[in-house]
Amino acid sequence: MKISFYAFVLLFFISCKDQDQKSSEKAPENRNIAPVLSVPENIEEAHNKVAFMEQEAIAFDIDLSFNGNSRLNATISMLTNSSRIKLEKKDDTVLIFDGEKVFQQSGDRIDTGARFDIFTWPYFFALPFKLTDPGTMWEEKPDRDMEGQNYHTARLTFQSQTGDSPDDWYLIYQDPETLRLKAAAYIVTFNRAAEEAEKSPHMIVYENYKMIKQVPFPQKWHFHNWSAENGLGEKLGEATIRNVHFFMPEKDFFSVSQDAKEVAR
User: Fold this and answer.
1) Which residues, other chains included, contact 260 with Cβ-Cβ below 8 Å and sequence gap of 6+?
2) Of the candidates 68, 77, 78, 100, which lies 20 to 30 Å from 85 by C-alpha distance?
3) What global pTM score does this model have?
4) Residue 227 contacts residue 201 (beta carbons within 8 Å)
């Protein structure tokens, strides 16, 4: 009886060990499972935000037109955290955002579109790196079709007192293959009521990505009308982005001259 008992105990432990091994094979440890990222997080990762933010500043030339008419021809320089911006127009008008206020450093009269220009175009350029900034709020939306291609979408809104136009919103389109930013529908509430802006939403479409120090940047922007019902509409304008480069600004690069005029809200 002793031999039979010991044999039974031995068989029992062998069986338990075999079951534990099978269970281990079927259920891998959770720590090896990658976290699921949201649309904005995926876009920032696809655009290599870490590499972008490791650089001090970035500059680019922009040639922007609407309805066949030139709207802006300038060089824009900015810190990668957007806390300082310089916009140098080809007509020698220079605009500077010093982190708190906007100034115009040349010209007898304040450019009526100065404040809009110095915030809007740099924001469109840096949008893939600003999706999880403080004050951003997100809502996942259903996939949408654009020109026969399906895109992931999510809606971006802002907490009150975020930036110059906290009532703006963006519907972000993410390329399902590259995970990069493809397009953004948006409204502009700068100097007008949100109810009025809601009547004419637009869309910016990003094309022709080029790698600059392992960070992808689009070389073409296309602007269109847009509606929730029909999506992409009539083309309104376009921008060509050239000479994108990171740089280390001199100490006084974003400094404001003594004769500069403040641009009010």
Assistant:
1) 96, 103, 104, 105
2) 68
3) 0.84
4) yes
